[in-house]
Design a protein that fits this description.
The structure holds 2 protein chains of 2 kinds. Chain A is mainly alpha-helical. Chain A is built from 12 helices and 2 strands. Chain A folds into 2 domains: 38 residues, no CATH class; 238 residues, MetI-like (MetI-like fold). Helices cover 73% and strands 1% of the residues of chain A. Chain B starts with a helix and ends with a helix. Classes of the chains: A mainly alpha, B mainly alpha.
Chain lengths: 293, 279
C-alpha cells in the first residue's frame, strides 16, 4: 500500500470490515451454532433448557410427521423443478428471437417474480378454489370435472407446485435467456450451412452451451425448494390432514405451537445437512454434464 | 419467393400466438385479481363467473382498510425494505472493499467464512435467531425485523468480484495523489461498480419486500410492526371466504411494487440476468 502505514490500515479494516463481520457473527454464524446447541436440549422457551443429548434426533428417526414432511418436500422438488425448468426454457427459447415486442412479453412473464409469495399463494388458492374458482370453471367448459385442489389430500401438493412454478418461471426464463445470448451467432450460422434443422440446433448447440445456466438454475432451485414454506402456509397450512406439510412448517409449528424449540432445531440441523449434501453432490456431478466452453 | 414469404408469415403468426398465450397465463391471474376485488359478495360467487364486475364496487377496499391498518403495513414494508437494502449495500460494499483491496493476515480464511454462510438458509436458524432477539428484547420491534437481514454474504461476494474487476492502477494513482481509503472507496471505485451494485440492490429489495417467515415470527404480537405479506395473511384469516376482500388487499399490497416495476423492469431484469452470467 502506497503511503498508508500499518496502523492506518488496521483502522481502515476495523471501520470497513467490522460492521459486516459483527452482523455475520451475530445473525448467521452465531445462530447456526445456536441451532446445534438447542438441538441437544429440551426447551419450550419458557423454562430453562434441559440437556438431553441426541434424544431429539432419535425421536426424529421415528417421527411419522417429520418423515411425511420430508417426503412432501421431496415431492415438491420433484414436481416443481422439472416444471419450472421446462417452462422457463420454453419461454426463453420463445423470446430468444428477433420479433417485435419481445421486451414487453419478457416484462409480463417476469411480473410474478417480483410479486410476494403470499400474494401468489392467495391468488392461486382462489383460482384453484374447487367451487367457484376460475380453473375448475374452465376445465368444466371442456368437460373435465376439476379436482378439489387444495381441499383434497391428493391434490394439495400439486396445487402448491403449480403456483410455485408459475411464480418462478420468469426467473428461470431470464437466467436462461441471458445464457442463450452469450452463445455466438456464428455457431448457428455454421450449423445452418451444414443443413441442421431447428431441433438439431437446439440439441447440439443451445442445450450443451446452456448447461452452465441450467446448473445455476438447478442449484438455486434446490436450495430454495428445500426451504419451501410461505406458499404452503398460506395455501394449505400443511393440510388437509397433514397431506402437504413440509419441513420448515414442522420447524415453525414445533417451535411456536408445540413449545418444542429443541426438537425443531434438530429438524433444522437435518434440513441443513440435507441441503449441504445435495449441493455437494451437485458440485461433484457438475463435471459430468456441465459444459464450460 | 412468394411461398417463402407465406411460410415466414405463418411462422411469425404462430410465434405471436404462443407469446400471447403465455402472456394470458402469466398476466391473466393478475387481471382476474383486480376484477375480483371490484365485485360484490354475491357477484363473486356467481357461476359462471362474470368477466367484468357487475356492479363495480369499491367497498372491498374500504373493508380492508377498516379492518386492518393496511396503510401502516404498507409504510412498514416500504420503510423496512428500503432500510434493509441500504444497510446491506453499505455493509457489503465496505467489507468487499477490504477483501478486494487491502491485504491482511487471515483475509482468505475470513472470506471463506462469508462464502460458507451463503449455504446457511435463514429458515434453518430461525429458532436461535428468535431466542436471540427475545434476549435482546427486540421482539415486535423494527430493529428485530431489520437486524437479521442487514448482512448479505451473497452481496459481499458479488461486490468483491466487482471491485476485483477494476484495475488496481486506479487506486494506486489516487493514493499517490494523497487520497485515503475512504476517498478511494467512495469517489473512485464505488461509482464504477454500477451494474453489480444495481443487481445487489434489486435482489436485496425484492427479498426484503417479499419476506414472510421472519416478519411473521418476529411481529406476531404487534400489528403495528407487521409488513404487507404478514398483514395479508392475517386478512385472509379474517375474510377466508370473502375472496373479493382478500383480492382487494392483494391488489393494494402489490400496487407499489408493480408501479415501481413498470418503470424499472428493463433494469430489474438485466440485473437478474447479470447473476446468471457472472454468478
Amino acid at each position: 500500500m502506497v503511503g498508508v502505514s500499518g496502523w492506518r490500515k488496521a483502522g481502515v479494516i476495523i471501520v470497513f470490515l467490522s460492521p459486516s463481520l459483527l452482523a455475520l457473527l451475530a445473525f448467521s454464524i452465531g445462530p447456526m451454532i445456536g441451532t446445534g446447541w438447542v438441538s441437544l436440549h429440551e426447551w419450550n422457551l419458557i423454562r430453562p433448557a434441559r440437556f438431553i443429548g441426541l434424544d431429539n434426533f432419535r425421536e426424529l428417526w421415528h417421527d411419522e410427521n417429520f418423515h411425511r414432511a420430508l417426503r412432501n418436500t421431496l415431492y415438491y422438488l420433484v414436481g416443481y423443478i422439472p416444471l419450472v425448468t421446462a417452462g422457463g426454457l420454453g419461454l426463453a427459447l420463445l423470446l430468444n428471437t428477433r420479433v417485435k415486442g419481445v421486451a414487453l412479453f419478457r416484462a409480463f412473464y417476469f411480473l410474478p417474480v417480483v410479486t410476494s409469495w403470499v400474494v401468489v399463494a392467495l391468488l392461486w388458492k382462489w383460482l384453484l378454489n374447487p367451487k367457484d374458482g376460475l380453473v375448475n370453471w374452465m376445465l368444466g367448459l371442456v368437460g373435465i370435472d376439476g379436482p378439489g385442489w387444495w381441499t383434497s389430500q391428493t391434490w394439495a401438493m400439486p396445487s402448491v407446485i403449480l403456483a410455485s412454478a408459475w411464480k418462478d418461471l420468469g426467473f428461470v426464463m431470464v437466467i436462461l435467456l441471458a445464457g442463450m445470448q452469450t452463445i455466438p451467432e456464428t455457431l448457428y450460422e455454421a450449423a445452418m450451412i451444414d443443413g441442421a434443422g431447428a431441433w438439431r440446433r437446439l440439441r447440439s448447440i443451445t442445450l450443451p452451451l446452456l448447461t452452465p445456466s441450467l446448473f445455476f438454475v438447478l442449484v438455486i432451485s434446490l436450495i430454495n425448494g428445500f426451504q419451501v414454506f410461505d406458499q404452503v402456509w398460506v395455501m394449505t397450512d400443511g393440510g388437509p390432514a397433514g397431506s402437504s406439510t413440509v419441513v420448515v412448517q414442522q420447524i415453525v409449528k414445533n417451535t411456536f405451537d408445540y413449545g418444542r424449540a429443541g426438537y425443531a432445531s434438530a429438524q433444522s440441523v437435518v434440513l441443513f445437512v440435507i441441503i449441504l449434501l445435495v449441493t455437494a453432490i451437485q458440485m461433484r456431478l457438475q463435471k459430468k454434464w456441465v459444459f464450460y466452453g | 419467393m412468394a411461398e417463402h414469404t407465406i411460410r415466414s408469415r405463418q411462422r411469425t403468426f404462430g410465434r405471436y400466438s404462443v407469446l400471447l398465450f403465455g402472456a394470458v397465463v402469466m398476466i391473466g391471474p393478475f387481471i382476474w385479481m383486480v376484477v375480483a376485488s371490484l365485485k360484490t359478495d354475491t357477484d363473486i360467487q356467481r357461476i359462471p363467473p362474470g368477466l367484468l364486475p357487475n356492479p363495480v364496487t369499491g367497498a372491498n377496499y374500504t373493508r380492508v382498510v377498516d379492518t386492518f391498518p393496511f396503510w401502516r403495513f404498507m409504510a412498514n414494508s416500504i420503510g423496512v425494505s428500503l432500510a434493509s437494502t441500504l444497510l446491506q449495500l453499505i455493509l457489503a460494499t465496505t467489507a468487499a472493499y477490504c477483501f478486494a483491496r487491502i491485504e491482511f493476515r487471515g483475509r482468505n480464511g475470513l472470506f471463506g467464512l462469508y462464502l460458507a454462510t451463503m449455504m446457511i438458509p435463514q429458515q434453518v436458524v430461525i429458532v436461535p435467531l428468535f431466542i436471540e432477539m427475545r434476549n435482546l428484547h427486540l421482539i415486535n420491534t423494527y430493529a428485530g425485523l431489520l437486524l437479521p437481514t442487514i448482512v448479505s454474504s451473497f452481496g459481499t461476494f458479488l461486490m468483491r468480484q466487482a471491485f476485483l474487476a477494476l484495475p488496481k492502477e486506479l487506486d494506486e494513482a489516487a493514493f499517490v495523489d494523497g487520497a485515503g481509503h475512504l476517498r478511494v472507496f467512495f469517489r473512485i471505485l464505488l461509482p464504477l461498480t454500477g451494474p453489480a451494485l444495481a443487481t445487489f440492490a434489486v435482489f436485496a429489495f425484492m427479498a426484503s419486500w417479499n419476506a414472510f417467515l421472519w416478519p411473521l415470527v418476529i411481529t406476531s404480537g404487534s400489528q403495528s410492526h407487521m409488513t404487507l405479506p404478514v398483514g395479508l395473511a392475517q386478512l385472509q384469516g379474517r375474510f377466508s371466504t370473502n375472496w373479493n376482500v382478500v383480492m382487494a388487499g392483494s391488489v393494494m399490497s402489490i400496487a407499489p411494487i408493480v408501479a415501481f416495476y413498470a418503470f424499472t423492469q428493463r433494469w430489474v431484469i438485466r440485473s437478474v440476468a447479470f447473476t446468471g452470467t457472472k454468478g
